Structures are given as structure tokens and as C-alpha cells.
């Protein structure tokens, strides 16, 4: 079933609305309720989208409730209220209107990972913004992912295809006089797009725009050596980087076997030479290896756990320094995550974003109870022999 973004006119008391500015390199489609496909567009498009989230009494934190039938029910489902495709000038005007309503005039830009259809990215980011209670202007950058477990190669090339469009997006955000600060949150393959865009900006402009102050790299599916070169090319005047890693991330272990090089999101920050390299590059690390997670592959812990996202967002918005995995924020996350795994429960549409086998909301209607079985199977194959 498709068409989840068909606007619903009904208004239900107790629902919450999240307004998203969307920038995408996906090709527009006339299919009802789809808006943008997984194909690549010759130029970026813009959209203003408002998502209605069910009353808190009808959902668990961290849950995206997908409609079982069309149209969805705002009382129980995530539904679209408004889906306007707009031109660039209109998008900038709407950005101004939104940014002046936030205290610190802070933009949070989200770049999703592998195997996300357009509606997957929209609903997930709306959920993160709502559950984290982040006082930001949310901007979603969504690139042409096929939303298929068999399209890893296509998605990887689409990430390369989209890096200049993301660079341009970051530049127009940073040049906006109403914007005081920009933070980037990237997950999995989306980290490649983000790092490439920042690298290109540094090379073209001589440095990264000073307003881009925080880059959160969540479980990056990026080769360690490539990431080192990308960050070095950004020069000394670069944002604060925070790297979220897990040595038991089975998805990245699979990726390492495929590509032959260690993935940045699976490094051990306490062993040499990685420890010294991270310190030299001034990259703070939050080690999530010991965090309890409902994700059987331990790849979506950061992206799917809104309590952790809320801790990050609160620290960023307050302008506090993000500490590393041995103190401060890392300890706080580990302490809170023990309870979070219990309180959040099973996340609807659990994204198991492995390069070889991925179960996410795009395939929810086909796999159902196979999620846990698949996670256990891949986990077993990754155990030391």
C-alpha cells in the first residue's frame, strides 16, 4: 500500500502537528500521496509538509504508527495534513517564518540512511522532532533511495549524486540572516552524503560556514580511511563532530565484509591508533556498545531511540559542550538508555538498516514477524568463529 502522504482533512483533539521544510533530489511523481519517488531528479525540489501525530495517550515514544488503510485515522495514525510542493523562493520565505519562532533560531537538518522511501523519511523525522521536543526549525534533506533491500548499490550512487545539492542547501541555510545556528544529524549511509557535502563546501569556499556548528554522525556506514580524508579536507575551521559508534553493530560488520574496510560507526574509540586519531581530529565519541536496544542489529539505536535524541538535542540547544564516551553526555545516555529500552518498547516499523538485508517501514507489510528472526540469523553469522 502506498500513498501515505495523502492529506487528511479531519482534525482530532490532542493531536500534534510537525511542520517540515523538505529539500530533495528525488524525482517528483503524480502518484497520489507519494509526492517523490526513488528516481533521481536533475535539480532539487522543495516541499512544505505538516504531519499530524496521534495523541500521546495513543502511542509510545519512539513509535511511528503507519495507517493500515487509506485514509489514515489521525487519532491512531501518523497522517499528512498538508503537502505543498513549492519553489525555492517560497521555501526560503517559509524558512524565515519558521525560524523566527524558535528561541535560538536553530536549524536541525536530518539526512536519512539506506532503504528509505520518501514517506519513511518524512514520518521518521517528524517523530524524532515531536518526541525529542527539540525547539528547532526542522529541515529534511532526502536523497533518492529506492526503499528496497536489494538496492544498496543504487542507493550508494544516489548518495554521491546528492552531495552537491546538500552542499547548496547548507550554504543557503548558513547565508540566511535569520538563521543563527545549523546542526546536522545524519544516519548510516546519510553520513557519506553529509561528509562529502561539507568537504566540498570547505574546498570551494575555503572553509565550512561558521553557522554550521554541530555534526552528529550516527552509526556511519563510511569507510574509516575515507572519513579521515574527508574530515582532513575540511581544514581546521570545521564544526564540532560527535561520532556515535557501536562495536556490536552487526549491520556495519556486514558492510565491512562487503567493502573490505572498517566502517566508522563500528570502531573501538579506546584502542590505538583510533583513540589518538579521534583526539587529534577533535572528534567526540559516544560509545553505544553497551546500550540496550530493541534493534536486533544494534544499527538503529541512535536513530530510533528518541530519549537519546532528546538528550543530544537538549545539550545542543543549550549550547553545552558535548563530552565523550567516558564522561558527561556518554554516561548520561548509557544511564538513561537502560530504562529507555524498556519504556520505548518495540518501535513500529523497526529499521534494521543492514547493507545486505534490511527490514524497515518500507517493507513492513511483507515481513512482519520475520524481523527478529532475521536479526538473530545475521547476528549469528557475525559471531567470531
Net shape: globular
What structural class is derived from the secondary structure elements? alpha/beta
* Unreliable stretches covering 5 or more consecutive residues: 323-385
| C-alpha Rg (nearest Å) | 19 Å
Distance between the termini: 42 Å
DSSP strand tally: 11
Q: Major β-sheet, in short?
A: 9 strands, mixed
Could you spell the SSE succession in H and E letters? EEEHEHEHEHEHEHHEHHHEEHH
Strands of the largest sheet, in order across it? 3-2-1-5-4-6-7-8-9
Strand content: 15-25%
Which key phrases capture this entry?
nine-stranded mixed beta sheet, disordered C terminus, single chain, 21% strand, two-stranded antiparallel ribbon, 12 helices, 385 residues
In short:
The protein is α/β, with parallel strands linked by helices and 385 residues long. Helices cover 37% and strands 21% of the residues.
Would you give an account of this structure?
With 385 residues, the chain is an alpha/beta fold. The chain is built from twelve helices and eleven strands. The strands form two sheets. A nine-stranded mixed beta sheet has the order 3-2-1-5-4-6-7-8-9. Strands 10-11 form a two-stranded antiparallel sheet. Helix 3 (152-175) crosses helix 4 (190-205) and helix 9 packs antiparallel against helix 10 (329-344). The longest helix has 24 residues, at 152-175. Mean pLDDT is 80; it is low at 323-385.
